[in-house]
């Protein structure tokens, strides 16, 4: 007996996605009901005050009025509230003696239902909806969407932008509706540049109406320069706390009714921003960096009190993977990834506690039928005390994986140069790499220099030397400048073609690695698994070096300053993600003296680097006042106390006077300098002073050290001498003995030798400044 054929098995429905969708719809319904009850409660309060009714009598009275007038209860409630308080957003009702033309029904004012009255009623209903959304935990994006859809879209508006004013007068995008995520990411922060339109409105506190768009070349949020815009200051308790910007698809007549309606809707927007959680800064520069990635990525922030994780930002691939969740940014992680939040929370906590990246092959580890697809190759990176980044790959579907592989291979282009005939051949992809039309004459490798950035032509010369003189293959990474003005990062790998020992041609490939390059710069990591391991390591080394030099530029050659020779070295931390806050500076001053500084910001990561840059630049400016090192350190202490994140730092600051060979210096909890004189090394005991950023109003003592011709002075940070196995005193003694063992040599050789001989084992970064008196 044969079994009947079975039809195709229906896939099991995504129960979790359906549940989230259903809960989202229920939440929306609850918010609509809360908005309705909020408005009815306000109208009931007016009736209680005007007619001395009880709350129950006021509710019955409102129902009878609605039945008598033939107006819905919500519309009548909006009319009653507007009649008692004025239009939404005004401080009071109409001026005394003004004829507003109301009618009364059973003793209650009812405005005429003309166009203005309808707009006032709509504004009141929208305000109630926004207040209800705020009270039920709605995100600022959701509340902005309520204001846009109910109150501004009927006026032809395209998008609403809500900016919060920070303590430093930056404008932080708190929420928006109507714009795409890429456009919104561009306007997450607006610095306080002088004379900008947004900051002019912020300072003057008066609305700005631009019916024909921007009046200058200045860029503002909106779809086009000539799109109409309205910029409204948001006030709370008499203080401008932010801005609301409304834009239109094109030019628009912003007449008095439109201006009146928008001004009214600015009041609930101001209350929404004022109620936002203080001190929860956006991830700043990380947001646009995440948007550059081609794989899913999101930023998480842990609540300082409860530890609950919230989703701050998702890039486009991540948003595509959570389409079943409405407005995921700002929600708790458990709401966005209910089946995976426990594993992700564990990885995020481990990353923050250890200050090291965490990895998981798959989340959740145990995947059950009916659950959403797991996250593959998950990486969680710490970027602060309460913030982490989560990077992952999507489902490993063979068809999708094959498509991605083929898409990456399209970035490869083959070329071949015939050195006998002078002809060159390109594959079809090469024209796309260089932005040239197919059929254009191929450019031989030896004539490629005009197509490259002028700083990279030396790399091309070195590759040609290897190919033509050494007869060896090689590869380089250069920047190609396209005719359309675009800049692409290009890897060139080439091999010589030999016939009977004679060089007859060159063959190789061009590969566009721009996406990988930007990812390496942003996060010091790569997802490019199709690149050979050796090539990948070489690219990472180059990019990490660029990042190091951008933060603390190394002195490439021996510097000769008034009365001094100076060599400086910077050794980055062993772990590529632990960028530190070590810094140094050697600066000749107008009065002939030379500033010599070494410092160390506590901690690692973006915050420490930001603090380091702030202190280094501040001390440079203060040095030009001509004051003593003790006074400079006192000022720098005040700068540290007012720097974002309240960092702490150690530093030693000296001013060398070549006229009398004296070094006047002060220290803020820093390690003692080492003086090498006639083969004997001595640790210079610094004046005892507290570190920078600990307490205000500190007076830093100074000491004067006379230096003789031939003396060598060494300033350094703790990464050179700290050890997990021994104390700091043993590390300093080890440094002193190593200095005495230095062979007589020029300053550059001694700096390199000392850095090689003395190495701490804490994997911290290290700065070293070596000064020799001429």
Provide the residue-averaged pLDDT. Answer: 77
The appropriate CATH architecture of the largest domain is 4-Layer Sandwich
Radius of gyration: 34 Å
Q: How many strand elements?
A: 29
- Main β-sheet, spatial strand arrangement: 5-4-3-8-7-6
- Termini separation (Å)? 105 Å
Count of DSSP-assigned helices: 21
Overall structural class, as computed from helix and strand content, comes to: alpha+beta
The CATH topology name of the largest domain reads Phosphatase 2c, domain 1
Oligomer: single chain
Fraction in beta strands:
15-25%
* Number of domain modules: 4
Helical content class: 25-40%
* Largest pleated sheet: 6 strands, antiparallel
- Contiguous runs where pLDDT drops below 50 for at least 5 residues: 1-13, 89-116, 276-283, 396-407, 524-533
**For this structure, what is the CATH class of the largest domain?**
Alpha Beta
Query: What is the overall shape?
Result: globular
CATH superfamily of the largest domain: PPM-type phosphatase domain
Structural account:
- The chain has 774 residues and is of the alpha+beta class.
- It has four domains: 13-88 and 102-138, no CATH class; 286-396, 2-Layer Sandwich (Beta-Lactamase); 412-512, Beta-Lactamase (2-Layer Sandwich); 552-773, Phosphatase 2c, domain 1, CATH 3.60.40.
- It is built from 21 helices and 29 strands.
- The strands form six sheets. Strands 5-4-3-8-7-6 form a six-stranded antiparallel beta sheet, sandwiched between helices. Strands 19-20-29-28-25-26 form a six-stranded antiparallel beta sheet, with helices on one face.
